[in-house]
Batch of 2 targets.
Target 1
Amino acid sequence: MATMTTTPTTSAPTSTHRDAAEHAAGTVSPRVDIYETDKAYVLLADMPGVAPDGLDVVAERDEIIIRGRVERPATAPDYQEFELANYYRAFMLTEDLDTGGITAKLRDGVLRVEIPKSPRVQPKKIPVRTE
Amino acid sequence: MNGQSMSRPWQEMRRLQREMEHLFGDMAPAGRWSLTGEYPPLNLTRDDKGMTLEALCPGVDRPSLEISVVGDAVTIRGERKPEPDASDERYYRRERPLGAFTRTVGIGERLDPDQAQATYTNGILRVQLARAPEATPKKIQIQN
């Protein structure tokens, strides 16, 4: 049972949070991996071109929103296969997550967000005593 | 979704990438597949001083990242590895391609490998390339 789902996004995500400036620059939805460990849920997002000061991760009630700002070059390249755009994506959370303990790390354009499971949900090994 | 189906796209791309591709100069002969759309995507900018090649490849394992220059070609090699705490059965969503990649491009101008320099910042690889001295255009003066 997935307890973290992404809100449906296309290449132009709709959201009541977006302001006009974000829309004008053009935003893309970063590719993500989401997986579970015993202690946490982990979200990885590819956000190349984003520096630490351009990254914004907000956990608010039942949502996590990630935003990344990139610097677009002044002139277009002579040969172009990619174009940088700001990133935006939102995710729904459920109650068994401890949003107070969320950590976020950015390295080489990959964001890693870790959301600890609340202690009562973590699998607990029960020591077996033999009598 | 198991790990096996994720690695097949990489194997397919590696097979295509064994051929050189030419960004400038001769068009690919008829019958060859278009070799664009491979990984990583590239941008190229030229000016009088040289060329800058940019590759969009976040999260590459730095020891695996390798750039080589010979003739008019640049080869970029590397690997995107899974996180140590990730296990195949516990993914809820898997969109990011992982695995080893190689891409070779022909720039169309002879390069000077000794002057090539690369940086890898925020997941963008930037390779500064210089033309080989004999390939540098020489300005011709008008005599009269």
Target 2
Amino acid sequence: MSSGAPMPPALPHPDDAPGGAAGAAVPSGSPPSIRRRLARAMLVGSLLSGLAVAVAVWLAAIEEVDELLDDTLQASAEVMRSLLPSNGEPIVVAAPTRSDERFAWQVVDASHRVVMRSPRAPTEPFVPHQLAGFADSARWRVFGVALGNGTRILYVAQTRAERSETQFEVAISSVLAALAVGILAYFWLSALVRHEWAPVQRLSDRLASHEPFAAGATLGVAERAELQAVHRSVDQLGQRLALRLAHERAFTAQAAHALRTPLAGIDAQLAMCLREGSPAQQPRLQRVREAAGRLQRVVAALLTLFRSDAEPVRDTIELAELLRQSADERVRVDVQATLPVRADPDLFAAALANLLDNAQRHGAAHVTVSTPALDTVRLDDDGPGASPERRTALQAALDAQAYDGVSGLGLTLADLVARAHGGRLRLPAPRDGRGFAVELSFGSPAQG
Amino acid sequence: MRLLLIEDDDILGEGLRDYLRAEGHAVDWFRDLRHADAARGEPFDAWLLDWQLPDGSGLEWLRTRRARGETTPALMLTARDRLNDRVTSLDSGADDYLIKPFAPEELAARLRAVCRRSAGAADARVHVGTVVVDLHARAACRDGERVDLTAREWALLEALALRSGRIVLKGELERLVHGFDSEIASNALEVHISSLRKKLGRAVIGTVRGLGYRLDDTGP
């Protein structure tokens, strides 16, 4: 099988999650949050509507208070007119009992002189000309009514400052109330969104632990009408995938049988040939058997790797024991393992066999197997190695999973096996600058 | 050892039969379960079973046999490589499990191990006086000297050593050594017994008159 053989890229890569060094195009940053956007919109909406209500209330309050004060002024004038003598006799005006008297008044005669006034009222008339009805001066809001025969006019007035103060007090309390309602609405809506968002969160939790391939797996009843479509789609997707998985499983089982049995037959027949063949034929038969052995290792690795449920099942690898079992007479192996390696034994054995095979075919006679870190295995061989440029190119091809650029199935398989565990294959600089080094990391078991 | 091999693939079946015969075993090879059932009641030292056979499952066949109380060691030969399959097959009564493709050398070694375990021989050596029968090395020593044995002689000695301490009937012993296929001369067994006695000493193999033979482990 050449390195250009098509490779299904669909192996699980559990570490392509955040933090993984995958070169795949992952959009940077997180997408916009619906909740955050809703919260922002509600905050702005609540404040704006609160503000709009406040402005409306402000205007209405000022208008209404204005009218109310005018009504009061007019009523006071009417009351005073009925009390004042109509013949022009002066009346005694009691001194004001309160210094902050709200009203001031004047009686102006026909020649526009002030003939009577309240203590707070100015000595000059409120308005320059005799005037019945409402009038404004710089300081006063005035209401004038004719007295008696109409030669005199009674002015009742209120300071404009006082009126403004009253208007402001009424308006500001109304505005504050409107704004408070806006802010309360914001908090209430936020709580509502949080509450309504919870079913979506729970659905996402359920999806995270959902096993679509389990028998009769469904997501259950949707908590909200809007989520029913999601439930339906996920259930249908699960069913489709389960069906496809079942087909693939059946196919790989058949393919495994169809490939493995003849290989076993070839080996058994070759073993007999070696027993029965003449001494002259032995070396050639031996080579054929070695080739058959290599074919077996590759097929076993491919079948293990590409079975559709290639979830690695981790176990602690007994490196020395494994290497004894898969002993390859053509290459001597030293084990210097100090740390445990937890990986799928079948996948690991397949990767190791093909890496050793690779080393041997590239001229190595001796391989040292070590464990530089937890769940990491390193192979150093004594072959001619590769130039640093070639090594960099190989590493780049492996990182990008561009296996066309990698010669030999050994590295490709080992990389796929490492990736299936959430790890990577690295090509470190060889020790002493000689030979070729390969480092297989299997990630942490929590990822695998 | 006498082996029952059920394997539907001609190339593999023939290769294994010939290889195991060359190793000195008597092999009866069947391509399906129907024919294998015809050999029911025959004494076998081990069963070698393919899982998927044209007329059924080798594992089911084994399960049925186990349910009947048959304890012959069984080795599954199968293309199924999943952990689940291995566990199922061991739980169904298989003593060992080999995933295709495998080297016939490994099959032979595992067979020896399985039979040794089933015979309860921990160190794989049976002692009869000064004679040591090493089931693992497939060799016999007398007074520390290795004795040269023919394939048939070894097969005979091994059959008795694996059943040390009990009488092995003559007919059973013949079939254990030769299987169904081989043409056997009526006195072939006696000839081999007598040559074994010549090489190892008369006392090693006892005759139970009218019944068969026995070999007693006297311990080291």
